[in-house]
Amino acid sequence: MKDVKEALLGRTSVRRYEYDEIPEESMEFIRQAVENTPTSYNGQQFSVIDITDQELKEKLYQLTNQKQIKTCKHFLVFLSDYNKISLLATKKGLEMPAITNTMDGVCIGIIDASLAMMSAVVAAQACGLGSNCIGYLRTVDPRAVAELLELPKGVFVVCGLALGVPREHPDHKPKQGTPLVFHSNHYRQDDSKMLEELEAYDNEVSHYNRTRSGSTSENDWCGHILDYYRHACDYRILDYLREQGYDIKR
Fold it and tell me: N or C: which end of the chain has fewer CB within 10 A?
């Protein structure tokens, strides 16, 4: 078992896996870590679907074209989930507040599921496993994914996580350093200095993409991420959320 420092600072996104099964004790540790995730109000507004059925993984791969979904041993789907508490409230004769009609309610479920996923990532890393977060599962075809996963009202996909024994050990991607990530007491006001640091980081990412092991590219950080934003502007997630019982009004 890796220590916390090694697990956190040694993490990379792994997309190629061995055929070996994940030991059950490792999966149990991951499950326990997820179950112990801090959540809003201790409401635990999330659930996880652990997909091991190869046929189902193949169908999700066909939707996303993310090969790691079909080659990983466990594909975990992290969900925002108000269905569970709604079921119990009905059973107890309690009125379920219209939390799913608020933006904060949407944020709560997303935050809880995201924290749970990070718990799984760290636990998997500590076990020597490889993992890869797949946000595209949320946006590629929300209705088709919801149908495949048989999601009830009040539940939607936040992110997927592929897990497996790593077949590769990718280079570490450059990350923004402390001055760009941590602000002291208030948001930084020195835009000119921040721009210098951002440009330096942009150049560092460009150099990494040109020289990294495996496939290389000419991608920078800023322009490449903006391309993702442009593509994301075409998603119609709000329409899908309304179909899942989230009629956001405020």
Answer: C
Contact 74, 27 (CB under 8 A): yes
Q: Classify residue 37 as left (phi > 0), alpha (psi -120 to 50) or beta.
A: beta
Looking at residue 225, what is its pLDDT? 97
Instruction: For residue 149, give every residue at least 6 positions away whose Cβ sits within 8 Å of its Cβ, in sequence order, or none.
Output: 49, 77, 157
Contact (Cβ atoms closer than 8 angstroms) between residue 249 and residue 104 = no
d(CA 37, CA 23): 22
CA distance 4 to 163: 19
**How do residues 197-218 score in pLDDT, each as one tens digit?**
999 999 999 999 999 988 899 9
- Which segments of 4-102 does DSSP mark as H helices, in order? 4-9, 24-35, 54-64, 67-71, 83-91
pLDDT in tens, 96-151: 999 999 999 999 999 999 999 999 999 999 999 999 999 999 999 999 999 999 99
Report how far Cα 208 is from the mean position of its chain's Cα atoms: 23
Distances (CA, A) of 177 to 1, 95, 133, 221: 28, 47, 22, 14
